[in-house]
Design goal:
The complex is a heterodimer. Chain A is an alpha/beta fold. Chain A has one domain: Glutaredoxin, CATH 3.40.30.10. Chain A contains six helices and eight strands. In chain A, strand 4 (66-74), helix 4 and strand 5 (97-102) form a beta-alpha-beta unit. Chain B has a single domain (23-194), classed as Glutaredoxin. In chain B, the strands form two sheets. A seven-stranded mixed sheet of chain B has the order 2-1-5-4-3-7-8, with helices on one face. Chain B has a two-stranded antiparallel ribbon with strand order 6-9. Classes of the chains: A alpha/beta, B alpha+beta. The interface between A and B is medium-sized, with 27 and 31 residues. Chain B: InterPro entries: AhpC/TSA, PRX-like1, Thioredoxin-like_sf, Thioredoxin_domain. Chain B: Pfam families: AhpC-TSA.
C-alpha cells in the first residue's frame, strides 16, 4: 500500500516537457547504440493517438535484456503546452518521456523522418542499430512488440 | 501462434501497400458521385466545363481541418470565379467519429458558411485517391474532359497561423495552372488526422 502511494505520488508530480527540434530528435534515435528506440508521434487532439497511449505504456523498460527507449513526440502546437499538453498529462498516464516536437515550416521534415509517412498521426518509428520500421496509423502492444522483434 | 503472426504480418504488409497506393501527379483522377450537404449529388464529371477542381478531403472534427476551414472558403472565393472551384469531401466513418456524421456536416457547413459542395464519402472514394488524412488536397486539371492530378498535399506551409504563411502551395499551384506555367511543387506533406474507416 505504501509502495502504491509512493508510485501514485511520483506520477502526481508536475511534469516538464522539453522542446526538441525534430532534427535533433531524429539524430538521437538514429544514433548507433544498443538502445531500441520507439518513437511515437502524437497529439492531445488526435483520438487514435490518445487511445493507443496505454498500449505504449505496456512496453517494459527492458526488453530481453536490451534497453528499450520509448519517446512520445508530441505534435500539439508549442503555444498549447501549458493550456493543453500539461493538463492532459495530469489526467492521462503517459509513462514514457514526452517531448514537444518543434517542427520547421513546411513538410520536408515529415519526408526526412520517413519517406512513406503522409503526415497523418499517430505514426510510430522503431530504430535499432541502423534498422528501422515505420507505421502510420493506430497500433497495439502486441504489434509493437512484433515490430521490435523483427529488428532484433 | 506462428500462423497468427504470419497472418497478422501479412495483414500489416497489405495495409501498408493499400496506404501507399496513392495517385501521383499526372495520374487521371477517378470520377465519383457523392451526396452533398444540400442533398444534391455531385460528380467530378459535373465540372467538365471548368478548368480544374480543388478537391479537398477534410472533415468536421480534426483540429487541422478546422484550422483550414476559412482558408478553404478563401480558395473558393479566389478561384471559383476563375473556373477552378473547390469541392470538399468528408471521408470519415461517422460510426467511429460521430462529429463527422452527415447531419453534423450539414450543421458545420451552415455554421462556417461553406461556399463549396461538402460531400459525404460513404463509398471509401479516398482509397482510390490514396488520401490518408484530413486535410489532404488534390488539385485536378481538366484536360479535354478528363481530370489529371497536378498537385497533392497541403494547402500551405503553416497550419497554425494563416497570417504567417511562407508558401501558399495550393494558391501557387492553381495560379500556375491558370497561367499555363510549370508548378513549383507537385507534392507536399503536412501533419493531419488519419482518415477514420473500418
Amino acid at each position: 500500500m505504501l509502495l502504491l502511494t509512493a508510485v501514485i505520488g511520483g506520477h502526481a508530480e508536475a511534469r516538464k516537457i522539453e522542446d526538441v527540434p525534430v532534427e535533433k530528435l531524429k539524430q538521437r534515435v538514429e544514433k548507433a547504440s544498443d538502445t531500441i528506440f520507439v518513437l511515437n508521434f502524437w497529439a492531445t487532439w488526435c483520438q487514435p493517438c490518445v487511445k493507443e497511449i496505454p498500449e505504449f505504456n505496456k512496453i517494459p523498460n527492458t526488453y530481453k535484456g536490451k534497453p528499450v527507449k520509448v519517446i512520445m513526440a508530441n505534435l500539439d502546437f508549442p503555444n498549447q503546452k501549458d493550456s493543453r499538453v500539461l493538463p492532459f498529462l495530469e489526467t492521462n498516464e503517459v509513462k514514457h518521456e514526452v517531448l514537444m516536437t518543434i517542427t520547421p515550416r513546411g513538410g520536408e521534415w515529415i519526408e526526412a523522418m520517413d519517406p512513406t509517412w503522409s503526415g497523418a498521426i499517430p505514426a510510430t518509428i522503431i530504430m535499432y542499430k541502423g534498422k528501422r520500421f515505420f507505421h502510420e496509423g493506430e497500433t497495439n502492444y502486441e504489434t509493437i512488440i512484433k515490430w521490435i522483434e523483427s529488428l532484433l | 501462434m506462428k500462423k497468427r503472426i504470419i497472418l497478422s504480418t501479412m495483414f500489416v504488409m497489405l495495409a501498408a501497400v493499400m496506404l501507399n497506393a496513392q495517385l501521383k501527379p499526372g495520374d487521371i483522377a477517378p470520377d465519383f458521385k457523392l451526396k452533398g450537404v444540400d442533398n444534391k449529388w455531385v460528380s467530378l464529371s459535373d465540372y467538365k466545363d471548368q478548368k480544374g477542381v480543388i478537391l479537398v478531403f477534410t472533415c468536421n472534427h480534426c483540429p487541422y481541418a478546422k484550422l483550414y476551414e476559412t482558408r478553404i472558403i478563401d480558395l473558393q472565393n479566389k478561384f471559383g470565379g476563375k473556373q477552378f472551384p473547390v469541392v470538399a469531401i468528408n471521408p470519415n466513418d461517422s460510426t467511429i467519429v460521430e462529429a463527422d456524421s452527415f447531419s453534423n456536416m450539414v450543421a458545420n457547413a451552415a455554421a462556417k458558411g461553406f461556399n463549396f459542395p461538402y460531400l459525404l464519402d460513404d463509398i471509401q472514394l479516398f482509397k482510390k485517391y490514396g488520401a490518408t488524412k484530413t486535410p489532404h488536397v488534390f488539385v485536378l486539371k481538366n484536360e479535354g474532359g478528363s481530370f489529371k492530378v497536378a498537385y497533392i498535399g497541403a494547402i500551405d506551409d503553416n497550419s497554425q497561423d494563416p497570417n504567417d504563411v511562407g508558401e501558399a502551395y495550393v494558391v501557387d499551384a492553381v495560379n500556375a495552372l491558370l497561367e499555363g506555367k510549370a508548378l513549383a511543387r507537385t507534392e507536399t506533406k503536412a501533419v493531419g488526422c488519419t482518415i477514420k474507416f473500418k
